Amino acid sequence: MGKMLDGFRAAIHTRKAPQSWGAQFKFLMKGAKGSTKAVAERLGVSQRTVQRWAKGTAQPSKKAAETMAAETGKAWQPRVKERAKQRAATRGYSVSVAGTFGFRAAKGSTDDARFRQLTQQMPDRLVGPLWDAMEAGDEEGLRELVAAGLGEEYFRDRGRRADGLDVELTDVESLDLDIWGDEGDEDDE
């Protein structure tokens, strides 16, 4: 993976799955909408065993706890990823990027490439395409979209200056993504 993909993926893989069997059990029960039968089938134990765990009168065996941890792990990251996608779609996101920016501009202006470190909210119209490029593993597409977003928001100030300036992003040293309002969800654990 490249630095663009690494930065985007790190932003949606930051929350750890629940670690205790109790938190894992709660997560699986929530995903099964409270169905002890569905959780029992998923974990390969009897429904009565799951009911005992729910009441607090029993704890899972070592094998059941390992299965619970594995099943939680399988379901956890897709859920975190989906929530991040929903937050990005409703709240937008910003990128912090350190890299070399090159420019093509009108005659008489400097278009020398230079290193910059910028943090900027991405235009709403790019939220979906950026996410799609990340999902597709398209490093070059991400680079082009981030450059387009920074060109629009930072360099051209939403059309208020530098009309016709074309921005290119090369030699990315780092990229961080901040999904606006990404404070986490307490009900996940």
Task: Explain what the structure shows.
It is a single chain. The chain has about 190 residues and is an alpha+beta fold. Helices cover about 50% and strands about 20% of the residues. The chain has 7 helices and 3 strands. It has helices at about 5-10, 20-30, 35-45, 45-55, 60-90, 125-135, 140-155; strands at about 95-105, 115-120, 165-180. It has a 3-stranded antiparallel β-sheet. Helix 2 (about 20-30) crosses helix 5 (about 60-90), helix 3 crosses helix 4 (about 45-55) and helix 6 (about 125-135) packs antiparallel against helix 7 (about 140-155).
Write the SSE topology.
Blueprint: H1 3-12, H2 21-31, H3 36-43, H4 47-55, H5 62-91, E1 93-104, E2 114-121, H6 127-136, H7 139-155, E3 166-179
Antiparallel strand pairs: 1-2, 1-3
Helix pairs in contact: 2-5, 3-4, 6-7
